[in-house]
């Protein structure tokens, strides 16, 4: 892993991630387990069952304003608001495309840090793409967020609130298609999720726990991405959470991956893939290999062949991503013919492969673009 140098620049090859020290967000209901909520309510001089009521309002009714929780004693509502419902996210800017079914929101956190989330409504599901850090310390050169550097880790509640905000918009019928619910969550927004391990696992638990403990989203509908933090992948495999692991590989050879994904200087391709196969064996979940196709950089047919040989006959699926270029970047998407050739070579090796639907290109869909512009 890497630490931050005094200048804030990530230093590859170390074993811990340290965000710059700053004030922490106030505690929120979603930061706490149900047992912790009951204890906190009791400390306020209220009966423990009030925690269940608060949880049902927030996770089931999507209401975060105790003033509207009329089944609670009026005298206690202000107390609950101060203790459990601080303002976490403030919408700075929202952009829509795909006839309103794709919505990207730029959020300002309590300390001014900026993060992004995207709601994508399809005919059979609605997916929220959420951020787990403000910025990112992985320093991948083709990624807008990576070039911005790491500001800080997000809290469990700040992560969860992105999903709740999307769920509120769906429930209110604000997204074309009528009232709905969030069915899928992907940790593919700003940040390296496994570098903020405790908060991310806490957020996943809030998402999958049934109401009133959490949002009741199926663990199989949640995907956690990583550039390949090997110890954290092993730890996640033991959490008892059958979420999908998405490995951002982007190159099958160490020479190129050292450049595209600098953490590869710490954990090489073979070691990262071994961790992925171990994850698949322990969770029985198919691993997703994320591969951004970059023109003349990693889209050669021989690299497709090498990738196919490395992952064939594994519990795996390749998700090819036409690069969403960022302003001023030399990196751009592969030519259509090269993309097609890459797919053919993977299919030749019997590897399941799809090309990701590139939603959001018209609204600066690559994570970090809105924050950078702001």
From TrEMBL:
Compartments reported by the entry: Cytoplasm
Function: Specifically methylates position 2 of adenine 2503 in 23S rRNA and position 2 of adenine 37 in tRNAs.
Cofactors that this protein relies on: [4Fe-4S] cluster
Region described as Disordered: 1-20
Domain Radical SAM core: 122-361
Record EC number: 2.1.1.192
Species the sequence originates in: Streptosporangium amethystogenes subsp. fukuiense
Further remark: Reaction proceeds by a ping-pong mechanism involving intermediate methylation of a conserved cysteine residue.
Active site: 116, 367
Main localization (coarse): cytoplasm
Protein name, entry field: Probable dual-specificity RNA methyltransferase RlmN
Signal sequence bounds: none
Listed InterPro entries: Aldolase_TIM, Elp3/MiaA/NifB-like_rSAM, Methyltransferase_A, RlmN_N, RNA_MTrfase_RlmN, rRNA_lsu_MTrfase_RlmN/Cfr, rSAM, rSAM_sf
GO BP term, example: methylation
Enzyme class: transferase
Cofactor binding, per record: Binds 1 [4Fe-4S] cluster. The cluster is coordinated with 3 cysteines and an exchangeable S-adenosyl-L-methionine.
Protein family per UniProt: Belongs to the radical SAM superfamily. RlmN family.
Family annotation (PROSITE patterns): RADICAL_SAM
Keywords: 4Fe-4S, Cytoplasm, Disulfide bond, Iron, Iron-sulfur, Metal-binding, Methyltransferase, rRNA processing, S-adenosyl-L-methionine, Transferase, tRNA processing
């Amino acid at each position: 892993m890497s630490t931050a140098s005094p200048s804030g620049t990530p230093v590859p090859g170390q074993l811990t991630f340290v965000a710059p020290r700053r004030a922490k967000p106030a505690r929120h209901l979603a930061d706490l387990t149900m047992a912790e909520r009951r204890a906190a309510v009791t400390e306020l001089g209220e009966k423990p069952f009030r925690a269940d009521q608060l949880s049902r309002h927030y996770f089931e009714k999507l209401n975060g304003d105790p003033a509207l929780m009329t089944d609670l004693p009026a005298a206690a509502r202000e107390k609950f608001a101060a203790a459990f419902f601080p303002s976490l996210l403030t919408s700075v800017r929202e952009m829509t495309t795909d006839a309103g079914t794709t919505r990207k929101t730029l959020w300002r956190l309590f300390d001014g840090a900026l993060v992004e989330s995207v709601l994508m409504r399809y005919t059979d599901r609605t997916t929220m793409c959420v951020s787990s850090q403000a910025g990112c310390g992985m320093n991948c050169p083709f990624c807008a967020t990576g070039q911005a550097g790491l500001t800080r880790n997000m809290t469990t509640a700040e992560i969860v609130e992105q999903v709740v905000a999307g769920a509120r918009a769906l429930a209110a019928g604000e997204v074309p298609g009528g009232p709905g619910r969030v069915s899928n969550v992907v940790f593919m927004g700003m940040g390296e999720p496994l570098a903020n391990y405790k908060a991310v696992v806490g957020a996943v638990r809030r998402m999958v726990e049934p109401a009133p403990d959490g949002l009741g989203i199926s663990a199989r509908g949640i995907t956690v991405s990583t550039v390949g933090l090997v110890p954290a992948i092993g730890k996640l495999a033991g959490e008892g959470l059958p979420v999908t692991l998405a490995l951002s590989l982007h190159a099958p050879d160490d020479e190129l991956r050292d450049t595209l994904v600098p953490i590869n200087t710490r954990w090489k391709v073979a070691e990262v893939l071994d961790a992925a196969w171990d994850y698949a064996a322990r969770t029985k979940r198919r691993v997703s290999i994320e591969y951004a196709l970059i023109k003349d950089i990693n889209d050669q047919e021989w690299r497709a062949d090498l990738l196919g040989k490395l992952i064939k006959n594994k519990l795996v699926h390749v998700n090819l991503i036409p690069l969403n270029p960022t302003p001023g970047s030399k990196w751009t998407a592969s030519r259509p013919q090269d993309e097609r050739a890459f797919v053919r070579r993977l299919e030749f090796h019997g590897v399941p492969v799809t090309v990701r639907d590139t939603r959001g290109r018209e609204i600066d869909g690559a994570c970090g673009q809105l924050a950078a512009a702001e």
